[in-house]
Amino acid sequence: MKTILEARNVSKIYGSGRTQVTAVHNVSLRLSAGECVVLMGASGSGKSTLLSLLGLISRPTEGHILIQGKNAAENERGRARLRNAFFGYVHQEYAIIENETVEANVMIPLQYARPRPGRQERQARIRQALEQVGLDWALKKKPSELSGGERQRVAIARALVNDPVVVLADEPTAALDSETAHAVMTLILSLKEKGAAVLVATHDDRVAKRGDRILRINDGRLITSEIGSDYHFHKDIIDDN
Ligand code: ADP
Ligand code: MG
């Protein structure tokens, strides 16, 4: 399958001296079109940090992120352009803006898209994204009028309004009851059919079971890696699961 996104020997170190934390340690991975990869690990294992590196939100201390085989841009403008052209993010805390309508929240990625679609096209895309998550009725609502599951669906609509090539979802079901969580995962998985590569970080087994493949992260290291040269293989940990 075609590799869309790749991390090559990526590390992220926060802080310096005695407070230094290696949140991601020499991680290599590949994501292909049309697959859903689940990134599993305990709280603090480096999932969010890895997602932010892959999504060009933060920069690796070492290593490289490649998009469609090419090194991601170095300069901030280039990175911002790639971020908007390629990625849809579903953030851990939804990152919904409370005092804006659902419509305005879903519009955010379109505001930053270059070229920016015209007003009519923006409205059509917002409507389409909200229809996909079953929230077309909520266009003019405020987030405070919605339930937790509905708010998460707004966050998903916002992630897909730009037709992203890669969808990065950080614990998208963590705050949801199991029925709503199942529905939200079904929605995220449906993005594969449009050819997107989907990466879902979670520590929920029920979410993990629905992915095509599982990557496990522990103390910033991937335990299973499909790239041979920097394979961290801890058989005992794999056998535990
Ligand atoms: P997870 O998402 O799996 O819970 P994180 O990526 O949030 O893990 O965190 C991994 C490690 O990096 C943790 O030890 C965390 O405390 C640390 N960390 C995360 N973000 C920062 C930051 N901005 N500054 C310093 N340390 C951080
Ligand atoms: Mg996290």
Write a brief caption for the model.
The chain is an alpha/beta fold. 33% of the residues lie in helices and 25% in strands.
Mind explaining what this structure looks like?
33% of the residues lie in helices and 25% in strands. It has helices spanning 47-54, 76-86, 102-112, 119-132, 148-160, 178-190, 205-208, 235-240; strands at residues 3-14, 21-32, 36-40, 62-67, 70-71, 87-90, 166-170, 197-202, 213-218, 221-222. The strands form two sheets. A six-stranded mixed β-sheet has the order 6-7-8-3-9-10. Strands 2-1-4-5 form a four-stranded antiparallel β-sheet, covered by helices on one side. Strand 7, helix 6 (178-190) and strand 8 form a beta-alpha-beta unit. The model is unreliable at 227-241 (pLDDT under 50). The protein binds adenosine-5'-diphosphate and magnesium ion.
For the structure shown, list the relevant keywords.
241 residues; Rossmann fold; six-stranded mixed beta sheet; 8 helices; 10 strands; 33% helix; disordered C terminus; binds adenosine-5'-diphosphate; binds magnesium ion
Bound molecules: adenosine-5'-diphosphate, magnesium ion
CATH architecture classification name: 3-Layer(aba) Sandwich
Q: Please, what is the oligomeric state?
A: single chain
Largest sheet: 6 strands, mixed
What is the rounded Rg? Answer: 18 Å
- CATH hierarchy, class: Alpha Beta
Query: How much strand content do the residues show?
Result: 15-25%
Uncertain residue segments:
227-241
Overall number of strands: 10
Strand order of the largest sheet: 6-7-8-3-9-10
* Structural class designation: alpha/beta
Average pLDDT rating:
88
The shape, in one word, is globular
Annotated CATH homologous superfamily = P-loop containing nucleotide triphosphate hydrolases
> CATH topology, which one?
Rossmann fold
